[in-house]
Amino acid sequence: MIAPNIKSQNLHRYSTINRLSMHYLLYLHLLKMMNMKGYEQYGIIPVDYGTILTNLREYKSPKDKVSKLEKSGDLIRLKKSLYLISPTLSKQTLSIELIANHLYGPSYISYESALSFYGLIPERVYSVKSATSKRSKKYLTPIGNYEYITVPEHYFSIGLNQKIIRDSFAFIIASPEKAICDLILSTPGLRLQSQKAMNEYLIDDLRVDFESVNAINPEIIKECVQFGYKKKELELLYKVLLNINQV
Predict the structure, then answer these.
(1) CA atoms within 13 A of residue 53's CA, in its CB half-sphere
(2) Can you list the alpha helix ranges (DSSP code H) found in 104-230?
(3) Are the C-beta atoms of residues 230 and 184 closer than 8 Å to each other?
(4) What does the angle CA 145 – CA 82 – CA 75 come to, to the nearest 5 degrees?
(5) Omega cis (within 30) before 122
(6) 61 and 161 fall within a common domain
(7) What tens digit of pLDDT does each residue of 10-19 get?
């Protein structure tokens, strides 16, 4: 049984991070809108259909204009009613992490995608993986493939970071420790019975390079353990990371 106050604290934690992230994005939007006109003002941040129509209200038929912009490639459709301004038009490099946060939520970047972002694994990740408290979902977009994997709601908000990139945008991503926990929880049939087996899983299977990060925080693992999902494996992970921290 999960203590109600723990669940409430975790949900509040995610809500606070998410609220700060969105406030920061809106603040940056306002700064840019002072000097930019038209739909290109949205830069690399996904924008909904209604907002685009409002911004094109001076046209005789805003809906026809949206269709023309999509056909010309100036607008990229990510899914129904969600668009992205072409990087050719915005003159900005797209962020797959930012897109992932907006495409389906609540969600945060995790699994191999987070480990790759931190430079902890050598492999290039072709599908952006996120954790969500909603049902699992996949999107195939012109920008790339996005996968969302369900995690328990009361476990969801542990170990999340808000990354602010070049003072231009922000997104929510799992800490390295939480990303590994998510991988262990989401891998069917994964049963590790010893610290040696856990160490082999991290080094040989995932090929994690812990020297790529300044510090590991095993306490995040400890917080995940209390929810009881693959408790034995997460306890082994906690002990292994504790030993790595002491080296």
Answers:
(1) 8
(2) 111-117, 153-156, 176-186, 195-200, 218-225
(3) yes
(4) 90
(5) no
(6) yes
(7) 555 555 555 5
Give CA 59 to chain center in angstroms.
Answer: 36
How many domains does the chain contain in total? 2
Global confidence as pTM: 0.80
SS3 110: coil
Q: Which domain holds residue 231?
A: 176-246
Q: Which amino acid is at 224?
A: C
Number of Cβ atoms within 10 Å of the Cβ of 185:
19
Instruction: Point out the domain boundary residue: 139, 174, 209.
Output: 174
221: amino acid identity, one letter: I
pLDDT tens digits for range 172-216: 999 999 999 999 999 998 889 999 999 999 999 999 988 877 678
- Strand order of the sheet with strand 47-48? 47-48, 82-85, 75-79
Q: What distance in Å separates the CA atoms of residue 181 and residue 26, rounded to the nearest whole number?
A: 32
pLDDT digits (tens, 9 = 90+) for 83-110: 998 888 888 888 999 999 999 999 999 9
d(CA 24, CA 155): 25
207 and 154 housed in the same domain: no
Q: End of a domain among 174, 197, 221?
A: 174
